[in-house]
Amino acid sequence: xxxxxxxxxGMTRLGKFPERSVKDLVAEAVNxxxxxxxxxxxxxxxxxxxxxxxxxxxxxNSVRGQCALRSMGWQTAPIINVxxxxxxxxxxxxxxxxxxxxxxxxxVIAVGGDKQFFPDRPDDMFRAFNGGTDVYKVRDFFDxxxxxxxxxxxxxxxxxxxxxxxxxxxxxxxxxxxARHHMALYGTTQEQLAAIAAKNHGHSVHNEYAQYxxxxxxxxxxxxxQVVWPLTRAMCSPVSxxxxxxxxxxxxGRKRLGTRRAVRVASSAIVTSSDRDPADFDRHTGRxxxxxxxxxxxxxxxxxxxxxxxxxxxxxxxxQAENLGFCPRGDGGPLxxxxxxxxxxxxxxxxxxxxxxxxxxxGATGLIMVHDIVRQLRGEAGAAQVQGVxxxxxxxxxxxxxxxxxxxxxxxxxxxxxxxxx
Length: 422
Known about the structure:
The protein is of the alpha/beta class.
């Protein structure tokens, strides 16, 4: 089986761009990745395309990748459309990697792009997120989560926790339930969540691609508009438009391109959620995916110098820091408050700004995280550079089932591999 490398990465700035199309965003990201890899579109042997919203918002179904990439001049090579909620980009990355390992291809691309901001259709914007869980079991999932964390909820906000509340996605209710459950089990506090969000808003100041680049203090995060307790707006990822692309190559492809900036893909694992006791976090999909990825990579949390995790809300960073083994279970909040996860700390997490500040264009998010880690491993992150980093890890969750994400992907990347044209 061939070793796999990331040879090129590219992405757009993230934000709300009502004037831009998916095709436009994708073209920018793909062209940037091709230029970064030093490869032409005609050299790409296969592509995987991730998108989560065009079906609901634009009626573009079935051949979304063909529509986006053919418009750029793509000819004959296969395009595989991928949909796996917020983990779609990571799923495309995993499948592109697998095709190289199987000896099918030498140069491939994984692409993700989404337009989620439609200012004239706000109800449709929020409703589109509902398909990320089982639409027949929405109440079956919501009601138990409310009960799990009820003991942590101040009496003054109990009335705000209600199914189908306007002005927010159903996923914010689910993450709030997870947060209250973690609070009840381990004593995690709203102040710790605010500290994590403030850290990431501060990190995003250095990220030219980020949707928001304004620093916030923990006090400002707490004072922001409440979405659903304990989450304030600054603790939640925004609605975002954007795209990203990653060129992957085999050893033969790397030598053919002569790239001196290739990053090794040490491993990639995707896990589906399973039935478990809500308190049994050792069977959390993020924990299982992390263990599988570490085993395949022959590495562990102690080898990671940086992490990008799926903080759709700030409680997710707490849980995933624990799942990735950076601290004991229940210590994710104190870990962040200690400064260990800040740029310059022991294990910097979400130096890009994370989803809460960088943005979250669902189908592209997993590839954006790969982009961010690759730039770090190459030493190209500028003011956000983590010094001496050799390996990094990406955790990207998607959808919801029961008490956790429906799918979780974990990739271990690194080290940087130098090489010249053979």
